[in-house]
Input
Amino acid sequence: MAALVVLIVLAAVVGGVWYYYRGRHMGRFAQAIGNTPTIPLPKPQGAVPMLKMPTAKGWAVGETPTVAPGLKVSVFANGLKHPRWAYVLPNGDVLVAESASLPSNVKTLRDYAMNRVMNRAGATRPSANQITLLRDADGDGVPEVREVFLSNLSQPFGMALVGDTLYVGNTDAVVAFPYQTGQTKITAAGRTVMTTKPGGHWTRNLLASPDGSKLYVAVGSLSNIGDSGLEAEEGRALIFELDLATEQHRVFASGLRNPVGMAWQPDTGSLWTVVNERDGLGDETPPDYLTSVKDGGFYGWPFSYWGKTVDDRVEQDAALVARASTPDYALGGHTASLGLCWAPAGTLAGMPEGMVIGQHGSWNRSKLSGYKVILVPFVNGKPQGAARDLLTGFLADDEKFSHGRPVGVTIAKDGALLAVDDVGDSVWRVTAA
Output
């Protein structure tokens, strides 16, 4: 009898912990989306935040994501090695960066749990550390040429061609390679033009200025909220501006916890980015966001979020909070919005002009979010109105597994939308039906 009582008590404790850390104690809220979102009050989860991640399953032969009415989706490429980002060269060749997260050093129970969760989700695996070239010369939507374009890189992500130089954002440096139109492989050694701190949020996205004189480099934070101290966060949680003539760089904007995708809004000439916000305060608190980026702007991290809402888990800097900018458009809590590109009106049948966003999907909510590709409509150079779903169906209805997780998005030379899927090891092609 005593043993039975112990088992019942143990089961109750385990069940209580599971109930708590799956986030059901947090309550359910409408998603914080739009220009003026309703953001729930924070409910700190403590040292071990809730973890919930679907198991990576991939796609069976013939399966595809669900596409919006008036559009169709097809496989542009599959069998890739954890593809993360895509870049279209002027001749139409598509470069795909293949890289993966590395397991973190286990120092705490949270580190151990995170490694297990991310491994099950397919986020951590041996990194291919390469860029693959895809060429669809006959325009039928299926590449005839597929070559390893660059290899022996260090977690490559962003790419930008300026003149005859291809810049690659490794996790620890921006590296320049000579490029000739039409080549399918670069064998020349790269030259480091700027170093960055590796680890933490490791992606290093790149975006060239319209005149080709500057390169913008997005660098995420080391930790959630400066957990190792702010000194460890120097040179992080920001966007650098790199002058390509002098190869000197400066901080363009800061207080951006994890900025990844960047794009130009052509009418205003302004730089836009999507940012992954902090964890541990609830399902919708705070939301990830899409925002224009002002030169010299500060966006709150780690002291505040959504402008001047103070995060009291952090020792405060009142002067910085006082000048924190409010983002332009909320994307919902923990959607992991990563990919970003501008889609002119008419690019996608039935869709207005706006920013296309690849939402990688949450791992720390009671009800999962993201796992889709959306379009945020723009009017007069600003986001306005409800986001439109372009691709869905990456996540199972019961949330137990994911077929895929969207990352980078870009517009191909023929006008098709390309969406990179790192769990499905694929690139999807979206066109008019």
User: Anything to note?
Assistant: The CA atoms of residues 319 and 433 lie 53 Å apart. DSSP finds three helices and 31 strands in the chain. The chain has one domain: 51-432.
